[in-house]
Specification:
Jelly Rolls, 7-stranded antiparallel β-sheet, 159 residues, single chain
């Protein structure tokens, strides 16, 4: 599986409770460990990634600092759009990831591939005690679902 950040529909991606200049859009435009995403008011963040086409997701990779700002409990939601802090608590996550604060780079394999995904939403529910949460970078791995195109099926594609 490959990094599929390049097929994000960046205009439809958003982050709630982000602190300028540490915003999702800055991180996507300048993917380096000096930008990242930082929460503004408290430790909670909602980050929604929207894709230009349906994708199959295999894993997500977080780049973090090893301190109290490291996200600790991340809930992941598939194909749920326009989630906010009021509505997200009532939604059942597709997966929950408990991040350790030992390694700077952590990969969470979904176990099974998540197919036909339009959006992936992350909710940072807890961190390691800091007032804010911080991601240095986030990478999403998977592949486009190209076989939804009838022309590919006729050519013998069997995805």
């Amino acid at each position: 599986m490959e990094d599929i950040t390049d097929i994000l529909e960046k205009s439809k991606c958003y982050c709630m409770n982000e602190q300028s200049p540490y915003t999702l859009h800055n991180m996507l435009e300048q993917p380096n460990e000096n930008i990242g995403i930082k929460s503004q008011v408290d430790h909670e963040l909602i980050i929604q990634f929207s894709f230009r086409q349906k994708v199959t997701l295999s894993s997500i990779e977080y780049f973090v600092d090893n301190n109290e700002e490291t996200p600790r409990l991340i809930k992941l939601y598939l194909n749920k759009t326009n989630l906010d802090f009021s509505s997200i608590e009532g939604e059942h996550p597709n997966a929950t990831h408990r991040v350790n604060n030992i390694e700077n780079k952590q990969k969470f394999n979904f176990g099974i591939e998540w197919k036909n995904t339009d959006t992936l939403t992350l909710f940072v529910a807890k961190n390691y005690g800091g007032e804010i949460s911080l991601f240095k970078n986030i990478k999403i791995y998977g592949k486009p679902v190209e076989c939804l195109n009838v022309n590919n099926i006729k050519k013998g594609c069997c995805c």
